[in-house]
From TrEMBL:
<dbReference type="InterPro" id="IPR049704">
    <property type="entry name" value="Aminotrans_3_PPA_site"/>
</dbReference>
<keyword id="KW-0055">Arginine biosynthesis</keyword>
<dbReference type="InterPro" id="IPR004636">
    <property type="entry name" value="AcOrn/SuccOrn_fam"/>
</dbReference>
<feature type="binding site">
    <location>
        <begin position="214"/>
        <end position="217"/>
    </location>
    <ligand>
        <name>pyridoxal 5'-phosphate</name>
    </ligand>
</feature>
<comment type="subunit">
    <text>Homodimer.</text>
</comment>
<dbReference type="GO" id="GO:0005737">
    <property type="term" value="C:cytoplasm"/>
</dbReference>
<keyword id="KW-0963">Cytoplasm</keyword>
<keyword id="KW-0808">Transferase</keyword>
<dbReference type="GO" id="GO:0003992">
    <property type="term" value="F:N2-acetyl-L-ornithine:2-oxoglutarate 5-aminotransferase activity"/>
</dbReference>
<dbReference type="GO" id="GO:0030170">
    <property type="term" value="F:pyridoxal phosphate binding"/>
</dbReference>
<dbReference type="InterPro" id="IPR015421">
    <property type="entry name" value="PyrdxlP-dep_Trfase_major"/>
</dbReference>
<feature type="modified residue" description="N6-(pyridoxal phosphate)lysine">
    <location>
        <position position="243"/>
    </location>
</feature>
<feature type="binding site">
    <location>
        <position position="271"/>
    </location>
    <ligand>
        <name>N(2)-acetyl-L-ornithine</name>
    </ligand>
</feature>
<protein>
    <recommendedName>
        <fullName>Acetylornithine aminotransferase</fullName>
        <ecNumber>2.6.1.11</ecNumber>
    </recommendedName>
</protein>
<dbReference type="InterPro" id="IPR005814">
    <property type="entry name" value="Aminotrans_3"/>
</dbReference>
<feature type="binding site">
    <location>
        <position position="130"/>
    </location>
    <ligand>
        <name>N(2)-acetyl-L-ornithine</name>
    </ligand>
</feature>
<keyword id="KW-0663">Pyridoxal phosphate</keyword>
Length: 389
């Protein structure tokens, strides 16, 4: 037993080294990484460009303060805004902090329009983080239980039901924003669907609400575009991201455009570490590496390789009730709870995850070879076969 607070049910393995899509444990055993530290190491482990950027920056300057200008922070904001079409960026250190910034921004936008108790519409089975505001926005009672009183100002709506949100618009003058993950991650890899997202955009426009996309998990190349929405015709007012943005270096970003861009002024928000030299240098290297488009395209083709290998390898495809997601954000829903597969996969040298009880979640690195993608799919199929044997 360690002295750590037991907030995680950890698997019995310790990794000491990684290279691309492979991790090595203390015994030197290799594992194929089908999870990327939950959508973080999108560029794989020990990517040379990221390592070099970190080494170079660490040897030069690690921290000053947001009291001063920080060149790598400005460079990263420029790179992100030119890729996304957003206009302004606030940097924090995690996905939850990026979402806290978005929630604060939406509330302040409401106050500036004379709404005294601004509310944000959030969805069932959403996941937005573990801070008090973001867990209150999250649509999972297990994450909230024991932490009441929750933060107010969130209105919950059923996923995929735009009529329910239209009814909220008719009855609740306090609403100022809608916050969604375009593909819900923790909720079971659930794409909301472009038609529904279009309807949300129309509702937000009609009511002068902000549309907030949480792309903490779907962003940074994983779904075939730098951010999911860049492959669609719906543009949100605010986009949050984290995870893959730093490829392992803690960083989160809240990006805004249009009427959301100039809401914050001096003193409205801040973070000692947010947007620090080291994290921004790493994230700039990640962003530049992804911006060529080769890896984002690769996410789509490797996603197909993984899916086909799963389908080809599973003896009885009726045990798969749904195979969904986009690119390298893949959910394989089975007929029953399959949490035990995570431990069995580890035994087989594969790192996978199960979410929402019955859905195998795969989030492998974009740098994986085609052979490794096939191996991952075949490995998962073998686990499914043994599970139903
Ligand atoms: C969609 C989404 N939003 C927010 C978060 C929270 O991010 P973090 O753990 O970096 O605070 C996560 C983490 O899983 C996520 O998937």
């Amino acid at each position: 037993m360690s002295a750590l607070m037991p907030t995680y049910a950890r698997l019995p393995v310790t990794f000491t080294r990684g290279e691309g899509a492979v991790l090595y444990d203390t015994e030197g055993r290799a594992y194929l990484d089908g999870l990327s530290g939950i959508a973080v190491t999108n560029l794989g482990h020990a990517h040379p460009a990221i390592t070099e950027a970190i080494q170079q920056q660490a040897s030069q300057l690690m921290h000053t303060s947001n009291l001063y200008r920080i060149q790598p922070q400005e460079d990263l904001a420029d790179a992100l805004t030119s890729i996304t079409g957003m206009e302004r960026v606030f940097f924090g250190n995690s996905g939850a902090e990026a979402n806290e910034a978005a929630i604060k921004l939406a509330r302040m936008y409401g106050h500036q329009r004379g709404v005294e108790r601004p509310s944000i519409v959030v969805l069932e089975s959403a996941f937005h983080g573990r801070t008090m505001a973001t867990l209150s926005a999250t649509g999972n009672r297990k994450i909230q239980a024991g932490f009441e009183p929750l933060v107010g100002g969130f209105v919950r709506a059923a996923r995929g039901d735009s009529a329910a949100i239209a009814a909220i618009a008719d009855n609740n003058p306090d609403v100022v924003a809608v916050m969604v993950e375009p593909i819900q991650g923790e909720g079971g890899v659930m794409p909301l669907g472009d038609e529904y997202l279009r309807e949300l955009r129309t509702l937000c426009d009609a009511n002068e609400w902000l549309l907030i996309y949480d792309e903490v998990q779907s962003g940074n190349g994983r779904t075939g575009h730098h951010f999911y929405y860049l492959g669609t015709d719906v543009v949100p007012d605010i986009v949050t991201t984290a995870k893959g943005l730093g490829n392992g270096m803690p960083i989160g970003a809240c990006m805004a455009r249009g009427k959301a861009a100039d809401v914050f002024g001096p003193g409205h928000h801040g973070s000692t570490y947010g947007g620090g030299h080291l994290a921004c240098a790493a994230a700039l290297a990640v962003t530049n590496t992804l911006s060529g488009g080769d890896l984002t395209n690769r996410a789509l083709s490797l996603g197909e390789t993984v899916r086909s290998a799963v389908v080809a390898g599973v003896a009885d495809n009726s045990v798969i009730t749904d195979l969904r997601g986009q690119g390298l954000m893949i959910g394989i829903e089975l007929t029953r709870d399959c949490t035990e597969l995570v431990g069995q996969a580890l035994g087989a040298g594969l790192l996978i995850n199960v979410t929402a009880g019955n859905t195998i979640r795969l989030l492998p690195p974009l740098v994986m070879s085609k052979e490794q993608a096939g191996e991952l799919g075949a490995g998962v199929a073998a686990l499914i076969n043994a599970f139903y044997a």
